[in-house]
Amino acid sequence: MHILLYSISYSPEVAGSGRFNGELAQWLADHGHYVDVITAYPYYPEWKTRAEYQGKGWFTEKVGNLTVYRTPLYIPKRVTSKNRILHELSFALSSLIHLSRLLFKRYDVLIGVCPPLQAGLMPYIFSRLKRSPFVFHIQDLQVDTARNLGLIKNKRLLNFLAGIEQYLLRNSDFVSSISEGMKRNILSKGTPIKRYRMNENWVDIDTFAPLSIQESLRSELGFSTTDKIVLYSGNIGEKQGLEILIEVANYLIQYANIILVIVGEGVARKKLVQQAEDKGLKNIRFLPPVLYADLPRMLSMADIHLVIQKRATSDLVMPSKLVNILAVGGVAIVSAKRISSLSSVIVDNQLGWVVEPEESEELANTILKALNSSKLDYYRFNARKYAEKNLSKKDILSRFENMLSELICNNPR
To answer: Which ranges carry the Glycosyl transferase family domain (predicted)?
Structure first.
């Protein structure tokens, strides 16, 4: 197959969808397909172009069957709803340079990964010009998230964006997403069931495997074996609502051996650090992201993991960090509505605990309950088994590859 993948996020980014896009493209290329990728410079979650990519303009990286077309884009110093829209639009416009160069190249299928929404619209238009089938892969229902979180307040703009989203969902040859909750939302917007496919986010279950406390990064990062580590690792952004952890740390300050550890970067990090300092909280530590190769060891140092979301996003996003947590046999406390698909996964498979989003006292009490629970080892065993059965990189990427083959077979040129 000759495949074009279009996404603002890509390797070497490991936060958000960048890792999944990079691994998908590499998998397809390793299996004999010819893959072109149009993407931006790596900038996330730091919101800063990495040093080795600065000032390069439009350029190409090629290894074997895989060619990556990099495009510059506007990256705001301070991320707001307004300049984030400009940021996403700048990628759409800047990518036209590469799209025009590829106009006369043959593609069997095009894939657009959302968010942002423009990452669906641009390759969809291109696919119609090329008369090639188009797959719209949804990592995040961005319009609903923006509406529910109040990130965009202009109703006309929201309705305009919702109209574009609905058109793409109804007219793409295949629509895929990563969770049952997202599937329900997508089908409710008019996507025909026969055009929908589930392709969950995956994990390399050989790389991410359970490790002992001694094999973890615990001692290297300055923690003792008697510390009770409650870990949040991932993007520190608006959708997560991590300000609740400041309140939780305040509740737990009387327990000297319980330490909340926040590992990551993002637009809300500086604000959280300042709030913790203002309250004099010594039981919360902020650490920078570790190298991807060290991520299994870092995750394995935790007694309990936190997967925090705001109430408004419970069934609109599926936290990608959860797949890595489960693979290392981690036990998670997840904030999600009880009726959400995320809650069902945790409760039905006995993988951890679910709390109502934005309820700091309930979260603090659940942390205490979890750290003293006799079920911890049982949940750890269940987590690893769930990852092996449902989240294997080999199984899910094979399914994605088969989906593309099916689509091409049903759309002969």
So the answer is: 215-376
Contact between residue 169 and residue 146 where contact means Cβ atoms under 8 Å apart: no
332 phi/psi in degrees, rounded to 5? -115, 145
- Report the C-alpha gap between 332 and 303 in whole angstroms: 9
Per-residue pLDDT of 27-86, as tens digits, reads 999 999 999 999 999 999 888 999 999 989 999 999 999 999 999 999 998 888 888 889
Is 80 exposed, middle or buried, given 0-12, 13-18 or 19+ CB atoms closer than 10 A? exposed
In contact, 272 and 248? CB cutoff 8 Å: no
Distance CA 335, CA 183 (A): 20
Contact (CB, 8 A) for 42 and 48: no
- Length of the chain in terms of residues written: 413
Structure tokens at 36: 């072109």
Here the contacts of 162-165 (C-beta below 8 Å, separation 24 or greater) are: 164/117, 164/121, 165/117, 165/120, 165/189
Cβ neighbours of 365 (radius 10 Å): 15
Task: Give the residue from 358, 247, 380 showing the smallest Cα distance to 305.
Answer: 380
Structural domains in the chain, CATH included, are: 2-202+392-410 (3.40.50.2000), 228-390 (3.40.50.2000)
Task: Judge if pTM exceeds 0.85.
Answer: yes
Instruction: Answer yes or no: are the C-beta atoms of 197 and 403 closer than 8 Å.
Output: yes
Proportion of the chain in helix, strand, coil states, percent, rounded to 5:
40, 20, 40
DSSP output for 76-136 = -SS--HHHHHHHHHHHHHHTHHHHHHTTTS--SEEEEEESSTHHHHHHHHHHHHHT--EEE
DSSP letters along 350-393, please?
T-EEEE-TT-HHHHHHHHHHHHT-TTHHHHHHHHHHHHHHH-BH
Measure CA 334 to chain center: 15
Q: State whether residue 242 is helix, strand or coil.
A: coil
